[in-house]
Structure formats: C-alpha cells, structure tokens
Amino acid sequence: MKGVAGWIFQRVTGVILIAGLILHFSTMHFSGPSQTTFDFVIRRLSNPYWKAFDICFLVTMLYHGFNGLWGIALEYISSLKLLRLSQTLIVGMVLLLLATGVYIITL
Amino acid sequence: MRYKFQTGSFAWLIHRITGAILTLYVFLHLYVLSHLKDPAQYTSVMETMKNPLVKLSEAGLLGLVIGHALNGIRLTSIDMGVSTKLHKPLFWSIFVLGGILFIYGSVFIIGGMR
Fold it and tell me: What is the spatial distance between Cα B5 and Cα B7, in angstroms, rounded to a whole number?
C-alpha cells in the first residue's frame, strides 16, 4: 500500500495485533503447561472460531511485519535493483509463511 | 542514515530493530509448530523447549514484544494528535509499565509453569 493509506494501515494493524496478541498469549503461552501439549493444541485448532482467529492473526501479522520491513528497505536502499530484489524476497517470505501457517492451522 | 541519540530517535531505532527481529522470529515459531504433523516429533520438540537457554530466549522475546507493542501505542497516540510535548513522559511511562509486564512475564516463563 502506498503513501498515507499504508502509513495509517500500519497503525491500524498494529492496534489489532495488540488485541490479538493478548488473546494469543493468554490462551497459548501464559496459562500453564497443559496448553501447549499436542492434544490441547490439536483440539484448539479443530475449533473453527480459533481457526478463523489464527488465520486473521497470521495475515495481519504478516502484513504489519513485512510492510514494516519494506518501509525499512525503502529508507535504506537507494539502488532500484536492490529494492526490486528485496521486494521479491519479501513477497517470497510472506508466501512461504502464509502457506506454512495455513497448513498448520488446517491440520 | 544518522540518528541523533535522543529519547525519540532512540525509541524509533529500537522500534525498527525489534520489529525486524519479531517479524523474522515468525519463521522459527511456525517451524516449531510445523512439527504438529507428527505427535511424537512435536512432543520431543516441546521437550527441548524446556531447556533453560530456550526459556531465557523466550523471556528476551517477550521483552521485544512488550517494547515494540508499547512503543507502537506511544507512536500511534502521537500520530493521532496527543501533544508531542508529552512524548518524553509517555516514553518513560511505557518504560515503567513495560518493565513491570516484562518482570511478571519472565518470572512466569522461567518459573517453568508451562
């Protein structure tokens, strides 16, 4: 996303991620040892609401994180060739993480 | 690019570094979770996560998350019109709040309650 819209969307996704992170941390990482066992994780992933949440959380995170990296690239890299290379790299990483994430969530 | 080391530019630089690390960390997070395809593999990976060094890294990671999230709230509030005169007190308030959250969270992680 270009210009002001991208800049605003970075803030909007940031705020969404804080809410998502609180939910993610409190259910998965800060509620005792039983929450990360195989059975628990699989049972949680079989719930469609959690599936939907996880996919939204992943997509929002990927946008926010890689849009941020792209912003850093834009600021530090002046060579058009290198910029194009970093763009390809970023798109590649997003697709890889998206595919891996969706694979895990829909296991 | 040069940074003048004042509270604001320091926070900005930290925001970029923590953001980049957190984004790349997702590779590791999803790699670990990809072992869910096999119960035995997943359980053995989870066993290695009990290593004290891993616990320490997790506490460090929590620190990065808290720093990035709270500084993000500060940046967004300034973007949305909170007076820039308040940016220093805002920085120190999130510093204290973040410190408390970090200590609380780290005690939980390293205390081995998971």
Answer: 7
